[in-house]
Structures are given as C-alpha cells and as structure tokens.
C-alpha cells in the first residue's frame, strides 16, 4: 500500500527512527550528527517547549482519564537541498530536538538514509540492550497465580 507520502513500510521505518531519536540522549545525537555531512539548516520552527496532557486507561472498560501534564519539546528544520525534518520528545532539551529534526531531515533523503541509520546503530543497540535488561528484571519479579476450584459450592 502506498500513501501520498510514501509506502506504509517507509512510514513505519521513519516512525521507528524518530522514536529512536526521542529515546536517545543529546550526546548520542550529537555523536551521530558529527559523523554525517550536514547541509546548512534553517529553523522553520525554532525548538520550543510546551505542555501536553498525558492520558491513561483504567478499569475493565479501558476508559481514559487525564494523568497530568508533561513537557514536550518540538523542532522543525529545513536542510538545504534535502528537505524538512521534524522532532518531538519528552522534556525540555531544545538542542536535542533540533538535532533529532536534522537527523529526520537527512533520513528522508534516500541517498543519505543508510548513513543516518549506520550513525544511529550504536544508540539503537544500547537502547535495545537496556530494554532487554529491564524486561529481565521485571520478569524476575513476576508472580503466577493459580486458582483452584475448591468444590464446596
């Protein structure tokens, strides 16, 4: 299936790359950008921080409720001869949002996509290892409950 902005697989891959940039630290993004040739970047929307309402779900029916407000920073840039890049992440780090937007803009150029993914590969491996470690710690505390019918009814 193809949309006006690309194939569904390409859109999912971009979402994964943008999520990786949101999970990464500013140092990780700086290191990735330092390995790439980056054309001049113009701010379409300077990095700015605001609040969004975080919602949760509770109960058997999954009704949503407002959990509270969280800080989100966003940026939009235009790279000379490449295109535009966008980024959103939790927190107030404006430099991180701008770096992530630059990486998004570079990734959208098919000729640079492989180099961007290669630059972000160490970050992806580190984040995945941290997720696996957290899953192992959580699994170690798991309790399985078994319900037996007592036959007294």
UniProtKB/TrEMBL annotation:
Entry GO MF terms: lyase activity
Domain of life, source organism: Bacteria
Keywords assigned: Lyase
Keyword Lyase appears in the UniProt entry: yes
GO BP terms in the entry: organic phosphonate metabolic process; organic phosphonate transport
Annotated InterPro entries: Phosphonate_metab_PhnG
Any one Pfam family match given in the protein's UniProt record, by short name: PhnG
Protein name, UniProt field: Phosphonate C-P lyase system protein PhnG
Organism: Methylobacterium mesophilicum SR1.6/6
């Amino acid at each position: 299936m193809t949309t006006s902005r690309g194939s569904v697989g390409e859109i999912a891959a971009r979402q994964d790359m943008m999520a990786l940039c949101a999970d990464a630290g500013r140092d990780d993004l700086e290191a990735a950008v330092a390995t790439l040739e980056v054309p001049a970047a113009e701010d379409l929307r300077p990095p700015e921080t605001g609040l969004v309402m975080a919602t949760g779900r509770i109960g058997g029916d999954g009704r949503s409720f407002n959990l509270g407000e969280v800080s989100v920073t966003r940026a939009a840039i235009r790279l000379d001869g490449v295109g535009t890049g966008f980024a959103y992440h939790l927190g107030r780090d404006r430099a991180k949002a701008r770096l992530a937007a630059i990486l998004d803009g570079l990734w959208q150029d098919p000729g640079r996509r492989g180099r961007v993914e290669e630059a972000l590969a160490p970050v992806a491996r580190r984040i995945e290892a941290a997720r696996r470690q957290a899953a192992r710690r959580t699994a170690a505390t798991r309790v399985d409950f078994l319900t037996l019918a007592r036959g007294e009814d």
